[in-house]
């Protein structure tokens, strides 16, 4: 029998509460996986509203507009890239879980019992702790997770900086739950666990008093994002900080946290943000002598080297002073506004593609994904001030006009199509002139 209280339509009150995991079992228990709402997609307006609220609070506190547009756009861009595979297939975290449930389950806990709900809450959070810890302690898993840590800022947008690769290893840590917990209950908590971690990415909230003992909070997670020596491999929690306290990885926030990777990548390009560490592993793998050493390069910590302990040496982590300045784009303010306009357009287009994916042809879907990736790459090139940025942007604008004419970008832009075609034509003229100048002056850069 279906649960009458649970509804696929998520009310405004539920949408607000789900951002903080304040949900009742009765309103979020479903018999089948198909009934489970896509809570994460429904949260997009709250992601944007809360980011704007944080911006305003930061502005008022500091008395000047907070910078970091380049960093925030790169984080949101990584969030978009990480979601694109979902246009084509269900996430591997669900597919693998359903497979194990259908073929190997030992018992079936009742989907409508509050006990199952609370047990799953703990189980998913425990699985997340171990996944997250291994994502820092196993080099090949770090290749995915490092994306999330590559921002040198710390605000709500950082939460959206997600890896496209990490889902291919995280499913392993949740799979034991499939031996006894129904997929519909798991799918609910997997989403709430992720949503909870959004609001803790902020410097606006200082300390939450006694809640700091049990919950993962902004303060605890700031430590996790730090590259100070005392922050390395600490506070892996998702929702409950108790796991770090139990397993000895807890560290309280004390000296000023400097955010980002210990070896900064200094780029806004989405491909580098997602995949640069795979290149590091590849080169280290071939440069390291001996079969077992090569094996260790992949499966021991990112800081490991022959003769060192599994997780490397803490003395090799570069010291920070607390005065470090986050990497910023040298693009002009006008160019940043242009990039913001293009990003807003592609965000609307991305949302619409998800909303209409059932009615779009496979070819249209593929072309749309190609255009989204091309746009985000071009934005990265512009922010990085790469020599070929003008050429890429000219090509991208031409692709836009081509796809528009071929009907693959409708209906999103249909009402605006005339205005947008004029806008993109002006862009082609502007960037085209710059491309020619660049190619004439230095064709090989
Ligand atoms: Zn992490
Ligand atoms: Zn984080």
Quick description:
Glyceryl-ether monooxygenase that cleaves the O-alkyl bond of ether lipids. Ether lipids are essential components of brain membranes. The chain has 445 residues and is mainly alpha-helical.
- Note the gap between the termini: 65 Å
Q: Give the low-pLDDT segments.
A: none
Number of helical runs? 18
Largest sheet: none
Rg is 23 Å
N-to-C SSE series? Answer: HHHHHHHHHHHHHHHHHH
Strand elements, count = 0
Helix-strand makeup class:
mainly alpha
Structural description of this entry:
With 445 residues, the chain is mainly alpha-helical. It has 18 helices and no strands. It starts with 11 loop residues before the first helix and ends with a helix. Bound molecules: zinc ion (2 copies). One zinc ion binds at residues 148, 201, 221, 225. Residues 335-422 form the Alkylglycerol monooxygenase C-terminal domain. It comes from Rangifer tarandus platyrhynchus. Its main location: endoplasmic reticulum. Keywords: Endoplasmic reticulum, Iron, Lipid metabolism, Membrane, Oxidoreductase, Transmembrane, Transmembrane helix.
């Amino acid at each position: 029998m279906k649960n009458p209280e649970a509804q696929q339509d998520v009310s405004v009150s539920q949408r607000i509460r789900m951002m903080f995991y304040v949900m009742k079992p009765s309103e979020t228990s479903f018999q089948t996986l198909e009934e489970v709402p896509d809570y994460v997609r429904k949260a997009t307006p709250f992601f944007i509203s809360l980011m704007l609220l944080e911006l305003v609070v930061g502005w008022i506190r500091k008395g000047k507009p907070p910078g970091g547009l380049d960093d925030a756009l790169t984080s949101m861009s990584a969030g978009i890239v990480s979601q694109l595979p979902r246009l084509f297939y269900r996430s591997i975290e669900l597919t693998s879980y359903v497979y194990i449930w259908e073929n190997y389950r030992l018992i079936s806990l009742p989907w409508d019992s509050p006990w199952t709900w609370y047990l799953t809450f703990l189980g998913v959070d425990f699985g997340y702790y171990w996944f997250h810890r291994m994502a820092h302690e196993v080099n090949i898993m770090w290749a995915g997770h490092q994306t999330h840590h590559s921002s040198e800022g710390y605000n709500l947008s950082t939460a959206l900086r997600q890896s496209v690769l990490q889902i291919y290893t995280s499913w392993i840590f949740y799979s034991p739950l499939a031996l006894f917990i129904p997929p519909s209950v798991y799918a609910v908590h997997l989403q709430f666990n992720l949503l909870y971690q959004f609001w803790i990415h902020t410097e606006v909230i200082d300390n939450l008093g006694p809640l700091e003992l049990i919950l993962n909070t902004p303060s605890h997670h700031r430590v996790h994002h730090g590259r100070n020596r005392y922050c390395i491999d600490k506070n892996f929690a998702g929702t409950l900080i108790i796991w770090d306290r139990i397993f000895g990885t807890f560290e309280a926030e004390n000296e000023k946290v400097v955010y980002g990777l210990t070896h900064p990548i200094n780029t806004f390009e989405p491909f580098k943000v997602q995949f640069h560490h795979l290149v590091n592993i590849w080169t280290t793998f071939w440069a390291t002598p001996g079969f077992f050493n090569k094996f260790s390069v992949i499966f021991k910590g990112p800081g490991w080297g022959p003769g060192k302990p599994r997780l490397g040496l803490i003395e090799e982590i570069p010291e920070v002073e607390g005065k470090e300045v986050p990497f910023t784009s040298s693009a002009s303010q006008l160019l940043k506004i242009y990039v913001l306009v293009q990003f807003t357009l592609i965000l609307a287009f991305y949302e619409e593609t998800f909303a209409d994916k059932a009615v779009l042809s496979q070819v249209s879907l593929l072309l749309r994904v190609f255009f989204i990736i091309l746009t985000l790459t071009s934005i990265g090139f512009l922010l990085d001030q790469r020599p070929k940025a003008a050429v890429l942007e000219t090509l991208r604008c031409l692709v836009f006009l081509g796809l528009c004419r071929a009907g693959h970008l409708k209906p999103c832009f249909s009402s605006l199509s005339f205005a947008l075609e004029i806008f993109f034509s002006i862009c082609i003229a502007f960037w085209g002139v710059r491309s020619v100048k660049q190619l004439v002056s230095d064709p090989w850069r």
